[in-house]
Specification:
28% strand, Rossmann fold, five-stranded antiparallel sheet, 12 helices, transmembrane helix, 3 domains, six-stranded mixed sheet, alpha/beta, Immunoglobulin-like
Length: 443
Amino acid sequence: MRFIKDLYLSNRFFTLLVSCGVLFVVSFFLPLLYGSAKAIFAVFIVLTLIDYLSVFLLKEGFFARREMAEKLSNGSENEIYLYLENRYTFGTYVKVIDEIPHQFQKRDVLFKETLKSGESKTLRYWLRPVKRGEYEFGAINIFISTVIGLTRRRFRFDQGKTVPVYPSFIQMRKYELMAISNRLPELGIKRIRRIGHSSEFEQIKTYVAGDDTRTINWKATARKGSLMVNNYQDEKSQQVYCIIDKGRVMQMPFEGMSLLDYSINASLVLANSAMIKGDKAGIITFSNKISSILKADKKPVHLQHILELLYNQRTQFKESDYDKLFANIRVNINQRSLLVLFTNFESLAAMRRQLPFLLQLAKHHLVLTVFFENTEMDELLNSRPANTEEIYLKTIAEKFVYDKKLIVKELNQHGVHTLLTPPAKLTVNTLNRYLEFKARGLI
């Protein structure tokens, strides 16, 4: 059955078969061509048999495997490798079809290669998932043909595998590596000048060129007989909580990803950055009820706990309850902390409904409210309306944009820090605000 099940006839085969049929029909009217038609048909049959035997006589004439990470990173380009090895004694033409998960809705993962006898080759392509969860990869289908090209043999390598898609750990590692190599400005992270000394005293040391003269310790200088300066270190072990709203307002999609997934990716990067800075990072998720709470910590294993918690977040598409959020924070967070609230206010009325709870939180903690610009309306805002309907739509879009600015202004007037950002720049802008708060000594 293998010789039939894995046999595929090429377009060239059918083209030649139809040509032979046409030649026989013509020979009916021109009998002199009948002998030539039979000879050509016989050659066609012989070539088909030779081609068929060439690709089917060797049982394991080809090998392929898929190589990839144990988990994929949401919202990032993930590399997938296909290793091909030709074990035939002749060169082959290869078609590769990889069965990728249905979530990508791609049917064009097709590669065409030519491999010499004994040659191996590695193909590479990228997949960008936009939702967390489990993705099912299927088999690798290889179609082999010879230079004759009348028949193809299919090799099917069953590499079915379920791969989890986690929050964007690739993005997190990129920011971490950039921080280590002092290249964060390349990603848009600003260098913020430290104002005053909002730091903890560490030690007294000898003055060297470049030290701030304002830190000179004159008493120690008099005792030592040489210039001595106070050395400070950043205040550490401050608590940073990422609070993620999972209500229906966070399901709006931008470039394939929901605002919830953008917030989860940014929370992972912010938590990792805070822990690198010596602060403690925690996570709270809520919608109509408190979904999960992860106490702030800075142990190395804590980052894995954050990753696992964020991976399992889902929404019930319900109205978020800020009253329960406030009550829960008052019970569980006793130390003054930075609360980064990822939510989305589409109207001034929606913000004012939650404003009393935000003000109560701001009395006890440093609150940064992060919400999103609707970048999908940029094209509409920059267009020139051609009729009354387009004028109406553009006016409504301008009203939405104006409301967002009013929300920022009103929150700032009440002492609640705000960040209005495009979804694509969420991580960079959030990190900048965190570093700004550290530099100003607000936390």
